[in-house]
Amino acid sequence: MTMAGMVCYQPGRRSRMFYAVREYRCRLGQPKGFGWRDLRDLVVRARIQLGGPILLVWDNVRLHLTAGMGEFIAANATWLTVFQQAVFLATGFSYRWLATPALEALTGQERCLRLSQGAPVHG
Q1: Of 32 and 99, which is predicted with more confidence?
Q2: Which has more confidence, 79 or 91?
Q3: Of the residues 12, 46, 61, 115, which has the fewest C-beta atoms closer than 10 A?
Q4: Which one has a higher pLDDT value, 106 or 18?
Q5: Cα–Cα distance for residue pair 14/8, rounded to 1 Å
């Protein structure tokens, strides 16, 4: 079983989680995991339900950096901004840092802005 998800924050509203689950049943031709189109669809679904612009902060998973995903991001730049996490944030040490009491006092948007210190993934 594979899961992809996004936690979304909006000022003055409760946080939301959007996710997709894929179960692999060993069938011939069945994909074992998610493709970039599945992630694209997850982002579009979040956009439709939230009704506003989206700022994504992504790790260094190869699927996030595919040409197809890059084209999707570029084509939707009016409502979609993507930042790639710095490599050091993908370590266990950094996750402990992210859970410090100082950061827990921040709103979801402030956390996203602090995490997005890296350069945009595309353009």
Answers
A1: 32
A2: 79
A3: 12
A4: 18
A5: 9
